[in-house]
Amino acid sequence: MSKRPTYEIDIKGGIDRFDERDMLFARQDLIRYFGVDSEQYKKYFSQHPDAEKFHAKLSVKQPLGGLNPSDAPMFRAQFKLIDMIGAESIVDGESATAKVDFTPERACQKIKQVANTYGADLVGIGPLRQEWVYSNVGSTGGDQPEYKHWGTPIDLSEHKSAIAMGFRMDLSLLRSAPNFPTLLASAQAYEKSAWTAVRLAEYIRQLGYSARAHHFSNYQILVVPVAVDCGLGELSRAGYLLNKKYGLGVRISVVTTDMPIQHDQPVDIGVQSFCEQCFICADECPSGAIPFGEKTLHNGLLKWKLDEKKCYSYWHVNGTDCGICMAVCPWTKPHTLFHRLNAEIASIKGSHQGLMAKADRVVYGRYKSAQAPDYLDPKRK
Questions:
Q1: pLDDT digits (tens, 9 = 90+) for 141-174
Q2: Cα–Cα distance between 242 and 240 in angstroms, integer?
């Protein structure tokens, strides 16, 4: 266990809160819901001309959803439901007037049990650092009326704690990356994470405390560093959270709250040392978005910086999201006894970690996409 997260912060410069409007997905939503002739579009992109050029190029590429016309409705059906429960009235709300008293220790135990019952595979509780709270709203919910909140300053200063939850992805679908089934793996995990988060937040509000759910359709925080602070794993070379049990095959949702609750400790499972010696995800990345080199300073944080433009552009060339980096990670394996033993050894820092990465290459070779289930055969409707 570690009392400090394993990411490194530049104490001189600090971290500036990130504006959600500057995210690729939020920019896509801006174009989608407001349109290129809107005042919002003109105001934002007049200040970000390079971003406008990027999204203009993206608009002529194929949309996500697979080339088979019977495939796209599969993921749209799931994301439509996620968007519906992304409304502000669902993720947040009024708390009960009377508080139910718990000791912080009992609150921690109770909340974890409820989160697991609702469907979370992993639960960790930690501090909500204000550096990880977005400065302004860029995307709230999937329905256009919710965009009245676009650009609104975000204030979560009353919420001192975060409950981070991890949801494992279906490895049988993930291993089809970068083909369409991997998008279903993402959608399934995101849907489960969203439903769990909104129910847990409502449960806490019923106890008399303030609570807000943060999920795929309505985040107000950066969930990966929050999950690191809550002890779910570490930041990896690929830019995702790496969990000891499920590797990179995890999606995250978070509930923030003012409920007095005991915090878990961040973990050090050897990921920084392992990723320094393992380059499999970078080598297999078809877009070259994952860096081979050393960590660099980005907004006060020393990290391996994913090139999100290269990554997202490849999605639109491919017609679906990718997921190869998750599928090839040596940590993302079926949770067998053999895998658990290897995870324990890999967590010990040393030169053997590099040898384990090379052994993974020898055993599994270059990545080959697994065959999709029959109903997802791209040659059949």
A1: 555 555 668 889 999 999 999 999 999 999 999 9
A2: 6
